Amino acid sequence: MPKKKYKQRKRKFGKHRDVGERLEAYRLARYHQSMDWEEYASSAGIDAHAYRQNENGKVRISIDNALLLKAKHKITLDWIYAGDDVEVSRGCVEIISQLRKHS
User: Fold this and answer.
1) String of b and e for 1-34 (b: at least 16 CB within 10 Å)?
2) What's the CA gap between 16 and 56, in Å, rounded?
3) Minimum mean pLDDT range among 1-5, 33-37, 70-74, 95-99
4) Residue 32, Ramachandran bin (φ over 0: left; ψ between -120 and 50: alpha; else beta)
5) Cα–Cα distance for residue pair 46/65, rounded to 1 Å
6) Cβ distance 79 to 88 under 8 Å?
7) 5 within 8 A of 37, measured Cβ to Cβ
8) Do residues 28 and 75 lie in contact, with contact meaning Cβ atoms separated by under 8 Å?
9) Which residue in 60, 84, 89, 95 is deepest, having the highest Cβ count within 10 Å?
10) Nearest to 20 by CA among 11, 32, 8
11) What is the pLDDT of residues 31-87, one digit of tens each?
């Protein structure tokens, strides 16, 4: 029996394609496709239609919605907006705080 050939879904990305691709990649990686975009957005308190436009790259996600995702799904703003997967360690944050106090 021959294998079925699946067509890759053609996506129309807007000018914020990079952000949209990272949002979708994180959702799929974290939830192994068990949570669709509507459930993902709703669980964070984000309008599903607005979030879909974010994943499609048509509209850049607002900072307010990005913060909701961060709080609910532990995605970093560095990843959303810049693609950086490096987090600042707690030790660095404490050192920065101490330096600010002494300046």
Assistant:
1) eeeeeeeeeeeeeeebeebbbbbbebbeeeeeee
2) 8
3) 1-5
4) left
5) 6
6) no
7) no
8) no
9) 60
10) 11
11) 877 889 999 999 999 999 999 999 999 999 999 999 999 999 988 899 899 888 766
DSSP secondary structure string for all residues of 32-52: TTSS-HHHHHHHTT--HHHHH
For the domain covering 17-102, report its CATH number: 1.10.260.40
Coil/strand/helix, residue 87: coil
Rounded to whole angstroms, the Cα distance separating 90 from 72 reads: 20
Average pLDDT for residues 22-35, to the nearest whole number?
85
Question: 69, 80 in Cβ contact below 8 A?
Answer: yes
Distance of CA 62 to the CA centre of its chain: 11
